[in-house]
Amino acid sequence: MGHGTREVPGDRRLPARISTMNWIRIAAVTALVGCSGAAVAKDAVSCGGAAMLGGAQLNCSHVEPKAPPQFCTFSWDLHTMAGDQKVVEGSFMLPPGASNVQVYQGSGFDSALSNPIVICRGNK
């Protein structure tokens, strides 16, 4: 082998790239296992939106009775009737028990280019 190392029968040396890939896989699996609680956690807010017939609307409900009021932000990529793309953004507060609250309404849109992204955080 060279550089003062000798070959030992059964000694398999892997190229550095393969060894690095294995460490990346191990780190990724460890991170997923360590964060499994976050993926299982129940969301306190449920939202749905649609864009059609010239308008767009986003409605949300507070669906976890034991959760505190939720402060939420949203971002939504919409297609305008003029053929352009527009990102609409906003924020809102949703108290426990709130149901089907209209948090955004706009006109001039014929379709959604993405699902609305809504991120909420409880206030205690």
Shape type: elongated
Output the structural class.
Answer: alpha+beta
Number of helical segments with 4 or more residues: 2
Q: Round the Cα radius of gyration to an integer and report it.
A: 25 Å
Order of helices and strands: HHEEEEEE
Proportion of residues in extended strands: over 45%
Low-pLDDT residue intervals, each spanning 5 or more residues: 14-41
Q: Please report the distance between the alpha carbons of the first and last residues.
A: 64 Å
Mean pLDDT: 76
- Major β-sheet profile: 6 strands, antiparallel
Number of strands: 6
| Helicity range | 10-25%
What's a quick, concise take on this entry?
With 124 residues, this protein is an alpha+beta fold. 19% of the residues lie in helices and 45% in strands.
List keywords for this structure.
single chain, 124 residues, alpha+beta, six-stranded antiparallel sheet, 2 helices
Describe the structure.
The protein has 124 residues and is an alpha+beta fold. Helix content is 19%, strand content 45%. It contains two helices and six strands. It has helices at 16-34, 36-40; strands at residues 45-52, 54-62, 70-80, 85-94, 101-112, 117-122. The termini are far apart.
